[in-house]
Please model this.
Amino acid sequence: MAILEVNNIKKKFDNTEILKGISFSMEKGQTLSILGSSGSGKTTLLRCLNFLERPDCGTISVNGNLLFDAMQAPYSEAEIREKRVHFGMVFQQFNLFPQYTALENVALAPKLMNKGKTSDTEIDSMCKELLSKMGLSDRMNNYPHQLSGGQQQRVAIARALALKPDILCFDEPTSALDPELTGEVLKVIKELASQHTTMIIVTHEIGFARDVSDEIIFMDEGIIADKGTPAQVIDNPVNERTKQFLSNYSGHS
Amino acid sequence: MFSSVTISLFEGFLGTLKLFSLTLLFSLPLGLVISFGSMNKNIILRGPIRFIIWIVRGTPLMLQLLIIFYGPGIFLGMNVWGSGDSGRFTAALVAFVINYACYFSEIFRGGIQSIPKGQYEAAAVLGLSKSQTFFKIVLLQVIKRIVPPISNEVITLVKDTSLARVIAFYEIIWEGERFIKSAGIIWPLFYTGVFYLIFSGLLTLLFGYIEKKLSFFK
Ligand SMILES: Nc1ncnc2c1ncn2[C@@H]1O[C@H](COP(=O)(O)OP(=O)(O)OP(=O)(O)O)[C@@H](O)[C@H]1O
Ligand SMILES: [Mg+2]
Model:
């Protein structure tokens, strides 16, 4: 069964339709990358999955359970909170909480969500393990402003993983980084892919997307214009739009 | 002479202190409430509150003192403030609290609105509730940002208390001036400046300490 099924998602902003009916599904343990030119709606799609935007139309199901249906009455704040933790989100700008250390950033939400089942020390050790996996064992007690962009983004990845989401979303995770720091972040994402973490990655790093993805979606003006394996979409594109997009980016990847 | 002047000025300074501390006690929480009102999505709430803030910040505090003290008697024909010194004090306190609450509300609003949207969104995708987001994520960041402007306002308040003299509220300058008539000497009036200086100096140290305490994050 598909872990995620997105069906006919549409989203308007001020009467402009930004998502014009997006449908796709993905299997557990797969990595899906979303490519597309600026303004094609990639961020908006991720925001819809994470309940940061409410689609005007469409459904979202996780593990066969209907999570979101635009036809239903607006969900209450509590319902949304319960539903959105199926997804994790890593932002372009990291958005770490500045007043908390790396470890506190990662442990905050699990501790708040924990209803006495696990002790705080257990949560802390789980979070420390995650940070070690991100290569940050010596940085756990640093505050965000004491960390490089690449380190901050790896903390943000650990923070998202700490809630054990079914699907982890990345919105251009390396776009805000200096070029020499992108490698360390891409490396941990690759590791997650090899451990079969289910991920959706919006990225402009085409070479990386080819290496890491099981499937590629190419978005253009609010629709899925092309879709397939990296070999189909990136190496042997047949779609005219995809070809044009890739040729614009060939210098960068 | 010097020590007796010091003692009586100190008495006057207690009046200053009383107005100062009670103004802070009431205007800080009221300011927070007003700031939420001034950010409310509903224009019917936000509009009038912004209008009042504009009036209060756009007119002199001295004028507000006079209007609040004499206004009810003139326009309503009744004395709402009670008689004598306690009436003057209540009127002065009300004027100061309204005035400072409006200034504080703008500082709070600026602080709250300066928190990047990304902080709210990161908290949201981690499943935090609205109140968890406010208390665990936003509040300390807001406090850090508003300590410097609040500190300015508080130090201004120390000196502004002397304006309450216009409605004959008893405070330190009043006491200092008394020596001109009673003893024909003016230096006690000048000497009041030392009290203000020491007190605002202590406040500066206190706020410096708080700022330092909050400097562990950026
Ligand atoms: N909250 C909003 N209000 C109005 N318009 C919006 C809003 N969010 C996004 N848009 C518009 O939707 C369109 C798609 O934006 P989106 O951020 O999803 O694109 P993107 O594919 O992520 O682009 P990029 O590669 O530049 O990040 C843009 O034209 C943008 O201006
Ligand atoms: Mg985007």
